[in-house]
Design goal:
The chain is of the alpha/beta class and about 750 residues long. It contains 32 helices and 29 strands. About 45% of the residues lie in helices and about 15% in strands. It has a 7-stranded parallel sheet, with helices on both faces. A 7-stranded mixed sheet has the order 12-11-10-13-14-16-15, with helices on both faces. A 7-stranded parallel sheet has the order 19-18-17-20-21-22-23, with helices on both faces. The protein is elongated. The protein starts with 8 loop residues before the first strand and ends in an 8-residue tail after the last helix.
């Protein structure tokens, strides 16, 4: 047996490079230590919150770490639709080029695009939400734009990581991700800020401000310094802090902002308008933050939205008291005691929209120097629960969890593009085992697409059912197992040079199985490449002329009967324009030679000719549809037999039928018979293939000739006593393979625990 070689490689996909620099360097080192080949896809050119020099240093670090990085033109705005489409194609090409074991994605836009690509490729994905854009108090447009997207994408997320408890509990209740985890932010290096605002850097209760700091930023040594750190954008809400500074009206209080962004000039003009331009310092991006924190007195954080703010944790580690907006993330770090609204052991919380509240809070804080020091020391202790070592230990467990839970990728290959017997089985397999395996479906494009979208199964449409197209699909999806259904798909897959496990699934016992011919010889030659051959009945296995040669790898598995689903669909309201009928006789299946619909029409004609009033319904479409219509006209059955064509949900009609006839020349299993019986509708069938297995305990249900089928049908339609007796016999003696039995058996096969004839 051949197995695909495991390539330990992972892709980290984020919107901008600054997210790698600020939040993920430790994650990269962790992944490298776990033995992964690490790739990064992000935008190194635009949208970053750090300067160009920092980006170049980052590229150097990545090269030294042997991390492969790729330019990804991912936008930051949800409204950049064209750029988002371009970014999606870029990432898709990257996935074509490399074989990643899984993806770790972050940021709203980058996370959404990466998860869409991962879903199309069937690759496991971790998504870290650094604060959902929808939250308590968020604008309505945020809920309308982001919540539906996150809710949909969560279904395709194997592990969803939240960085604050509010997001965690929301995700647990409302988002259906594979697993939801909480980590305390991205981690903070406590040691980096250990020397800030300690006894050595204080005089009594006052902080010493270095002379070099005062000279560089033109701040008097005895002045009080308020500090904010963050990008100059609307979300960081620096205007409120500037307005609060104006409300204070003190000449000894300065306000400094570390960060860069497009609002720099607007903030300066705003400060000038309020008359505090001389007391505001916008110093841009800085790499010497411990020095900046050491010379500050109070950390001010007026942000409107945060996940778990790194700058706030840095300020706490540096021993600064904090005045923060009352939002999630901030609430988790600067928590109230309940004694006095707003005031906390580590500082104070205020409404993000109220400069008045902030000004009053700052006035109270600045009035008590001893309280400032106590709050700073308290923050030092609290932030220890968010230190880098703890976060990395949790991330190691999460990465290990995904590695353990990596699902096998299984590709179903079929020639037909309609939704019928074999197609129904393949879709059912995907549905009942999607919690254990990743599935994809490949066939020529057609009506099946609608069913696959409904079941959320990845679809790889083939332009033609050819070797070239199949190679393209396999190269894209890279499955661990290929599950080929029936002759054409099995032979085509067998022609490939492969590194996957190959299963051939025979749903029928046509003529080529029962006697030697060209197709028999082709299958016989290819079976050497099959790792397992599944048959849906003992009849297929026993009637195969090459049984002795394949016996060791042949497994009889039957077909799945999801009784609950069939009953649920039978109860559904019809939407195709007419009310379910009450037919006496019913035919369901493709109008092909195998199903022999002409035999059904002849039986209806004989019953009508015998003087029995009968109403017949035929559901299905196929190559013999026109011939059947002509036969109905020739026999004068226009008012007796109605051809309703293909029906997506035949079960409401099946439930109303008095009797279902199966007139097939051959059947592998006889799924229609099993479905009718699950709705307690009696069946009469030709004694062929798997139907003999289904009705082995009720031989009266099997007919060996058309005449016998006609006589039994007439008897059941004309005698209520015979009909009721027959129904009781079927219910008592026919036992179908339930869906859980099928699920367990197929799971064993996919796990390669069954490799011989059963």
């Amino acid at each position: 047996m051949k197995h695909k070689k495991t390539v330990k490689s992972v892709l980290m996909a984020v919107s901008v490079a600054s997210m790698i620099d600020q939040f993920n360097m430790q994650n990269l080192r962790l992944l490298l230590s776990l033995g992964y080949e690490v790739h990064i896809a992000c935008n190194f050119r635009q949208g970053n919150t750090c300067n160009e020099k920092r980006i170049q240093n980052l590229l150097g670090k990545l090269a030294d770490m042997h991390v492969v990085y790729h330019q990804w033109d991912c936008p930051r705005s949800v409204y950049s639709v064209v750029r988002s489409c371009k970014a999606y194609r870029q990432l898709l090409k990257l996935m074509h080029r490399y074989s990643f074991d899984w993806i770790h994605c972050q940021s709203p836009i980058g996370g959404a695009l990466a998860r869409l690509v991962a879903h199309s490729k069937g690759i496991p994905v971790i998504y870290t939400a650094h604060g959902f854009h929808f939250y308590k108090g968020a604008p309505l447009k945020n809920w309308l734009l982001f919540y539906p997207v996150e809710k949909m994408l969560a279904r395709w997320t194997d592990v969803l990581i939240t960085v604050n408890k509010e997001d965690y509990w929301f995700a647990k209740r409302h988002l259906k991700a594979g697993k939801v985890c909480h980590i305390p932010g991205v981690g903070i290096s406590i040691e980096k800020y250990a020397g800030c605002n300690t006894g050595e850097t204080m005089s009594g209760n006052e902080r010493k401000r270095e002379k070099a700091f005062c000279i560089e930023f033109q701040i008097p040594p005895q002045a009080k310094l308020l500090l904010s750190v963050g990008e100059l954008n609307r979300g960081k809400n620096h205007r409120v802090a500037i307005a609060a500074l104006a409300r204070l009206g003190r000449k000894d209080v300065y306000y400094m902002i570390c960060g860069q962004g497009k609002l720099k000039e607007k903030l300066l003009r705003y400060a000038d308008r309020l008359g505090v331009r001389d007391f505001v310092r916008l110093i841009g991006y800085r790499e010497d933050m411990p020095w900046i924190y050491q010379n500050a007195d109070i950390f001010v954080f007026p942000s409107k939205r945060e996940g778990m703010p790194v700058s706030l944790m840095e300020a706490m580690a540096a021993g600064l008291p904090c005045a923060v907006s009352d939002i999630r993330g901030n609430r988790e770090l600067i928590h109230c005691t309940g004694k006095e609204a707003g005031f906390t052991p580590g500082g104070v919380r205020f409404s993000a929209n109220s400069s008045k509240q902030l000004a009053n809070a700052l006035r109270d804080l600045l009035g008590d120097e001893s309280a400032l020091m106590k709050k700073g020391m308290y923050n030092r202790q609290i932030v220890r629960g968010y230190r880098q070592e703890l976060v990395q230990q949790q991330m190691k467990e999460i990465y290990g969890l995904l590695k353990m839970n990596k699902k096998k990728k299984i590709l179903h290959v079929l020639k037909m593009n309609q939704y019928s017997g074999a197609e129904n089985v393949a879709v059912t397999i995907c549905r009942i085992l999607k919690d254990k395996y990743q599935f994809a479906y490949a066939c020529p494009d057609g009506a099946i697409r609608r069913w696959l979208e409904k079941e959320q199964i990845s679809f790889y449409p083939m332009t033609t059912f050819s070797l070239r197209e199949l190679k393209r699909v396999l190269q894209t999806y890279q499955p661990d197992i290929v599950h080929a259904h029936d002759f054409s798909a099995s032979v085509l897959c067998g022609c490939l040079k492969r590194d996957f496990w190959l299963i051939s699934h025979l749903h029928n016992n046509p003529y080529w199985i029962r006697s030697w011919g060209l197709r028999t010889w082709c299958y016989w030659r290819m079976q050497k490449k099959f790792d397992a051959i599944l048959t849906v009945s003992e009849a297929i296995r026993n009637e195969a002329v090459f049984l002795k040669k394949i016996k060791q790898k042949c497994i009889v598995i039957g077909n799945p009967i999801d009784t609950e689903r069939i009953v649920r669909m039978a109860d559904a309201v019809k939407t195709d324009g007419f009310v379910p009928e009450y037919p006496d006789l019913m035919f369901i299946g493709r109008l092909t030679q195998q199903k022999n619909p002409s035999r059904f029409i002849r039986i209806v004609y004989k019953i009508k000719k015998a003087g029995v009033k009968v109403h017949a319904l035929m559901l299905g479409d196929g190559e013999l549809a026109d011939r059947c219509r002509q036969q109905i006209r020739n026999l004068g059955l226009g008012d007796t037999v109605r051809m309703a064509g293909y029906c997506e949900n035949p079960y409401p009609y099946m439930r109303k039928a008095k009797l279902v006839l199966i007139t097939s020349d051959w059947e592998g299993y006889g799924l229609v018979a099993a479905e009718a019986l699950s709705l307690h509708v009696p069946v009469l069938a030709c004694a062929v293939g798997g139907l003999c297995t289904i009705f082995q305990n009720v031989p009266d249900a099997l007919c060996h000739s058309e005449e016998e089928l006609f006589l039994k049908t007439r008897s059941l339609l004309t005698s209520q006593k015979c009909y009721e007796k027959y129904c009781r016999k079927l219910q008592k003696f026919v036992h179908l393979q339930e869906i859980m039995q099928y699920k367990n058996l197929l799971g064993q096969i996919y796990s390669e625990e069954i490799t011989c004839c059963m």
